[in-house]
Design goal:
The protein is an alpha+beta fold and about 210 residues long. Helix content is about 35%, strand content about 20%.
Amino acid sequence: MIEIKNEHYISEGLARTCYYHPNNKDLCIKIGKPGVEVKHLYKEINYYKKINKKDTSKFAYTFYAAYHGEIATNLGTGFIYSLIKDEVSNQTSLTLRHYLEMQNSILDDTTIITALKRLKEQLIKHKIFVGDLRARNICCKILKDNSLELVVVDGLGHRDFFPFADWFHYFAKKKVDRRFTKAKLNTLSEQRNLIKELRLAGEIII
């Protein structure tokens, strides 16, 4: 059993809390919060099992955090994922939300918009869908050449009864376009306004 301590805490979402893996600096462990239904936690896991059949060698880059299975911890069942880190510093990558709220960010808007367009293209091309598309669920991985890759670290999956988007490019594009519009990620001004509104409304996890 893995023992997780407060010092391992990274961040949290609505359903899970994320910790550094105590024994592996390249991994993190997500654990369901008290009161969250087990079936809810496994929705994303089941989706990962489905998309793990895809040939990732065809991806332009790895645009979502890899899932590595379950592990027993002192806090309950943990789900292991790759930890996204910047290449030069080897530090955990900050989220898109962090950079959009940051004063004097090292990432300019043009760089972020270009990376968002590239992420969107990859999601459509490879028919990968994010049910909970938010700036806090996207990590900004800074590469050695100071370029940027956006990596989805939470919220993958969809609940379509007839998964036409899984089969046809037309529906995949429509679905991803809707997600970006709903999440207000087509422009950074929209996204910054959304984050500001959530902050003013007293939201802690946004």
